[in-house]
Amino acid sequence: MTAKVIDGKAFAATVREKVAGHVARLKEENGLTPGLAVVLVGEDPASQVYVRSKGKQTVEVGMNSFEHKLDADCSEAELLALIDRLNTDPAVHGILVQLPLPGHLDEDLVVNSINPAKDVDGFHISNVGLLGTGQKSMVPCTPLGCLMMLRDHHGSLSGMNAVVIGRSNIVGKPMAQLLLGDSCTVTIAHSRTKDLADVVRGADIVVAAVGRPEMVPGDWIKPGATVIDVGINRIDAPEKGEGKTRLVGDCHYVSCAEVAGAITPVPGGVGPMTIACLLANTLTAACRANGLQEPDGLTA
Ligand code: NDP
């Protein structure tokens, strides 16, 4: 079998188009422009790239983008005061604090100081609790993107066996909650899981969010299963020339694609969906804040 490739880049483009259409209607019919504020502390190059890309895509779908940059040595009080201002600013519907933060800042404290209704990353403890109890919440972007692709491919996920490899707060745990919400039978695997290969072999859906290059080989995959590869790992690529690198996922793409029914590539799978879902969450937050109907198909 050769797996169907789930094209995250194309899917993300359709999500952005949908968001842009709703944003245009909100402007015309309600005089409302959704706004996303991104807070960057310090000058981590990777974070700067992410923030630039988020700002660009926010503007492209017609929303307002507000960037706030603080020095790497800014005080916690300074950061909390900024978040406080954004929490009460009616032009700001979504707030994202780019992680990781410099070590002297308490990440949990900072994230939990964001107004949960504007917490478009879905990391606030209230949103974690709401998701865990099956209530309306802001859903973390990466797992939301995975869920959208799974629903699009399968329609109903009800009754399927899903294995999520990884139990982080930003990917593994919320992913498992979402799959449970869609009535999958969910197993969460992690570094202490025994016989991981056997666990994975029972899965109709495998979501790998580990951060170990090509850890999942094709012979772990049940024939016809759907493989969602969240991992983004940079490895040496001497075949491309000296000192060159390339990105790979947590799954060994070639061998998994021979067995799976469908698979997301790396790059071009889950990655592009993450920012698209951030835009979707900002739109959702703007609609909720104004008592307007939420767009269909852009939330869990
Ligand atoms: P974390 O490091 O926070 O979590 C990794 C998880 O993998 C942990 O739960 C860990 O288990 C588990 N793990 C580690 N080794 C093994 C092993 N040998 N067998 C089974 N489980 C193992 O990572 P994140 O969740 O933040 O990210 C995971 C990957 O997803 C990374 O490659 C990251 O770059 C990528 N990512 C991609 C995004 C995207 O937009 N596409 C967004 C976010 C992340 P334990 O808890 O026991 O230590």
* Shape summary: globular
User: What is the residue-mean pLDDT, rounded to a whole number?
Assistant: 97
CATH superfamily placement of the largest domain: NAD(P)-binding Rossmann-like Domain
Q: Give the beta-strand count.
A: 11
The Rg value, from CA coordinates, equals 19 Å
**Beta-strand content estimate:** 15-25%
Q: Can you list the ligands bound to this structure? A: NADPH dihydro-nicotinamide-adenine-dinucleotide phosphate
Instruction: Please work out how many helical segments DSSP would assign.
Output: 10
Strand and helix order:
EHEHEHEHHHEHEHEEEEHEH
Structural class, please?
A: alpha/beta
Task: Give the terminus-to-terminus CA distance.
Answer: 31 Å
Helix coverage percent of residues? 40-55%
Residue windows where pLDDT falls under 50 for at least 5 positions: none
* CATH architectural type of the largest domain: 3-Layer(aba) Sandwich
Structurally, how many domains make up the residues? 2
Strand order of the largest sheet: 1-11-8-7-5-6
The biggest sheet amounts to: 6 strands, parallel
User: Could you say what the CATH topology of the largest domain is called?
Assistant: Rossmann fold
- CATH class category name of the largest domain: Alpha Beta
Question: Can you walk me through this structure?
Answer:
This protein has 300 residues and is an alpha/beta fold. It folds into 2 domains: 31-117, 3-Layer(aba) Sandwich (Rossmann fold), CATH 3.40.50.10860; 141-272, Rossmann fold (3-Layer(aba) Sandwich), CATH 3.40.50.720. The protein has helices at residues 8-30, 45-60, 76-88, 107-111, 125-132, 141-154, 172-181, 196-201, 253-259, 270-289; strands at residues 4-5, 35-41, 64-70, 94-97, 161-165, 185-189, 205-208, 226-229, 233-236, 245-248, 262-263. Helix 1 runs parallel beside helix 10 (270-289) and helix 2 (45-60) crosses helix 10. The radius of gyration is 19 Å and the shape is globular. NADPH dihydro-nicotinamide-adenine-dinucleotide phosphate binds at residues 142, 165-168, 170-172, 189-193, 196, 209-212, 230-233, 270-271, 274.
